[in-house]
Amino acid sequence: MKIKKIDFLTLKDFDRDDLIELVDLAGVVKKNPGKYKKVLKDKNIALLFDKNSTRTRLSFEAGISQMGGNAIYLDSKSLQLSRGENYSDTAKIFSGYLDGVVIRTFDHKIVEIFAESSSIPVINGLTDSYHPCQILSDLFTIKELGLLKPDLRLTYLGDSNNVTNSLMIGLSKMGIKITIGCPAEYSPNPSIIDYCSKIDGSNVILENDPVKAARDADIIYTDVWFSMGDADSKDKINKLSPYQVNKNITGHAGSDVKIMHCLPAHRGEEITSDILDGKNSVVFQQAENRLYAQKALLIYIYKRL
Length: 305
Ligand code: CP
Ligand code: NVA
Prior knowledge:
Largest sheet: 5 strands, parallel
Radius of gyration: 19 Å
Bound molecules: phosphoric acid mono(formamide)ester, norvaline
Helix content: 40-55%
Strand content: 5-15%
Number of helices: 12
CATH topology of the largest domain: Rossmann fold
Structural class: alpha/beta
Number of strands: 9
Number of domains: 2
């Protein structure tokens, strides 16, 4: 019997037990670097990217190679896609040659079309709407910090974007409260808040006052104010300035508050360098963990096929 392929498009498709399994597996991978050397033997996995990437690209390329597979990086501009070949046809072609694809693109519909039109697993390496690989990895980092528990107080400060969406979903799935500190104009998409509100144990709080949002937080998480594809705006900078993660704002959190950022950071904009490089920052541990989380995801997908 052919086993149904697993796509990883958003965290919506995974329940709490799946996420716990993946997070635990990332820990096993980190402790046993040599253990999974053959999981991807003879497998060719493409990375089809429309946007720049350092961590996602490298963690998948290195992870695939470390598990015996072959990663093929494809800048979409060099494919016939850029001359109008459609995604559905392209997905069918990929299915004939490859064993999987990681896609980084703009419109989330593209990864959905790819997943529907192909017979190979499709992994979302970031769209305008979601960044599930990042948050899967972040759940692992939070677990390493000993904080993945229902009474965690995590505050996200700044622009509501793809990372925010996936963070809200990921924490809600784990039954953990999340506070979003942002101006009303840059609030998260209501449909994501609505989705989260229906998850057992979820609690998404919107707080327009940055000091109240940061107060007593165990973790403060931020991301850039201008995501890839966003237009620059002085007005947005002015409105988000009070939500900058700096000495003043972190002073309202617990003294042991951990600072998270998915990176890349715009130092001096959403976060100051003293905080990013400070003793409470876990951002480089967070970035390294992408490798273990991506390997765990690939093991989870391919061990069943
Ligand atoms: N955090 C993250 O996805 O980084 P890259 O854009 O470098 O892949
Ligand atoms: N929100 C950012 C995340 C980068 C990893 C962006 O989409 O550019």
